[in-house]
Automatic annotation (TrEMBL):
Classification via SUPFAM superfamilies: ALDH-like (SSF53720)
Organism (species): Streptomyces omiyaensis
InterPro entries per record: Ald_DH/histidinol_DH, Ald_DH_C, Ald_DH_N, Aldehyde_DH_dom
Protein name according to UniProt: Aldehyde dehydrogenase family protein
UniProt KW Iron keyword: no
Signal peptide start and end residues: none
Domain Aldehyde dehydrogenase: 13-481
Record PANTHER family: ALDEHYDE DEHYDROGENASE-RELATED (PTHR11699)
Gene3D superfamilies: Aldehyde Dehydrogenase, Chain A, domain 1, Aldehyde Dehydrogenase, Chain A, domain 2
């Protein structure tokens, strides 16, 4: 039996007005399940339910919110095997990625924000002595800045991680006392239903969490333009983010946006090339390059250019492409046939622009599935579209540079600025270069992340910061409270 989901509105599982659409396994092209097609009216009902629940939830004790989030994390971890199989089926991620980077990270984020619900929200300010005047008598005035919940938050999540990405929005929003309307990506929403069921089992009150889905853009539009929504948290393409920003701007709604990326990896001639190849190679392997933080744009100093290109080509030769459920598979499919065609079109465009295909460039010979061969393009220049545009697939482009000044200029010559990377044996230079990069984050000799560090982008890569305690700040408003001493 193909599982058929329903909307979750006001604590009730509800039949969708628009029927259902198929969620397809990108590795087998088989139907994984049927997701609901909500109407605009049902999305607005979900936002109204969140509005009604806000007064009660925002006044709950932090300890109560923490307990619910912690129970939800435990329930998600309890059912990790089933969640892993579902995530692998609807995303095409390998078993290791689905288990370790999707389900496990999703559960851990709920655990993190269970603790976050207990973090202090008050910041005492120095007292101020005021002289008598039009504003009143002289006196000493105390003040405190307090973080308050924003209200109703629409969480629109990306397809590349249906566990970690929704958890990174829902958990801190709830921890701060907000209520939410969750609208997952249409390609792989089924994991989010499992997440919401865990929250329901954990005892989240009716209306605090609402889940709406749909394959049509109208569903996301309704989740943004509802008058009951105070804030939109979005992860996805820059183009969609710009459209959301226009709607939010007209209504003066808060925004948190993680948008596109085209991460520059500056590799200097004194770099540890083994480390650089391992880091850059994750673009090919980790979720088939469908990750906005990937170092897809490699800027390499000429002294080590040929060696680095050769090592990257050798790296791709050892990547097994195939069934994500099979042991040993490193690269699975991309999310859909349409996206596979888009990635392949970019590779062909690169050829026409003069790039040299060093590895990949042809579709893998698999009978089924939306597979793209890990592809390395060399002899690129910064004006090529394959260098400037986000491809969001297992494709790396290489651009040479002569000196530090040119390398920094090339890195910053981009519409994007999410995470850049620097590989150099000279730590002082690496930190000096990092300070000049127009990016929300910089990895020095690593692609690793510190999950308490702020995350977000410069330029067209986003608005705002989240992760760690920064997410609690993102889902709150600051209120000043002043009193006479």
């Amino acid at each position: 039996m193909t599982p058929t989901e329903r909307l979750y509105v006001g604590g009730v599982w509800t039949e969708p007005d628009g029927g259902h659409y198929e969620v397809v396994n990108p590795a087998t092209e088989e139907v994984v399940g049927l997701a609901p097609e909500a109407s605009r009216a049902q999305v607005h009902e979900a936002a109204a339910a969140a509005r009604e629940a806000f007064a009660g939830w925002s006044r709950t004790k932090p300890e109560e919110r923490a307990a619910i989030l912690d129970r939800a994390a435990t329930i998600m971890a309890r059912d990790a095997d089933a969640h892993t199989a579902l995530a692998r089926a609807e995303t095409g991620a390998t078993t290791a990625t689905a288990r370790g980077m999707q389900v496990a990270v999703g559960s851990s984020r709920f655990r993190r924000y269970a603790k976050g619900a207990l973090e202090p929200v008050e910041q005492p300010l120095p007292p101020q002595i005021n002289e008598a005047g039009p504003m009143g008598a002289a006196g000493v005035f105390g003040a405190v800045a307090v973080r308050r919940p924003v209200g109703v938050v629409t969480c629109i999540t990306s397809y590349n991680n249906p566990w970690a990405n929704p958890a990174g929005k829902i958990a801190p929003a709830l921890a701060m006392g907000n209520t939410v309307v969750v609208k997952p990506a249409p390609q792989d929403p089924l994991s989010v239903f499992a997440m919401v069921r865990a929250l329901e089992e954990a005892g989240v009150p009716a209306g605090v969490v609402n889940l709406v889905t749909g394959s049509a853009p109208a569903v996301g539009e309704a989740a943004v333009d509802s008058p009951d929504v105070d804030m939109v948290s979005f992860t996805g393409s820059t183009a969609v983010g710009q459209a959301i920003g226009e709607v939010c701007g007209r209504a003066v709604k808060r925004q948190l946006m993680e948008l596109g990326g085209k991460g520059a990896a500056l590799v200097f001639d004194d770099a540890d090339l083994d480390s650089a190849v391992r880091g850059i190679g994750t673009t090919f392997s980790f979720y088939s390059g469908q990750i906005c933080t990937a170092p897809t744009r490699v800027l390499v100093q000429r002294g080590v250019h040929d060696e680095l290109v050769g090592r990257l080509a050798a790296y791709t030769a050892h990547l097994t492409v195939g069934d994500p459920a099979a042991r040993g598979t490193v690269v699975g499919p991309v999310i859909s046939a349409a996206h596979r065609d888009r990635v392949e079109a970019h590779v062909e465009l690169g050829r026409k622009e003069g790039a040299r295909v060093v590895a990949g460039g042809a579709r893998p010979g698999l009978e089924r599935g939306f597979y793209v061969a890990p592809t390395l393009l060399a002899d690129c220049t910064n004006d090529m579209r394959v260098v400037r545009e986000e491809i969001f697939g297992p494709v790396v482009v290489v651009v040479p540079f002569d000196d530090e000044e040119e390398g920094v200029a090339l890195a910053n010559d981009s519409d994007y600025g999410l995470i850049d990377y620097v590989w150099s044996g000279d730590v002082a230079r690496a930190f000096r270069v990092a300070a000049r990069l127009r990016a929300g984050g910089v990895g020095i000799n690593t692609i690793g992340r510190n999950m308490e560090a702020p995350f977000g982008g410069f330029k067209k890569s986003g608005v705002g910061r989240d992760v760690g305690s920064y997410a609690l700040h993102a889902y709150s408003e600051t209120q000043a409270v002043v009193w006479p001493g």
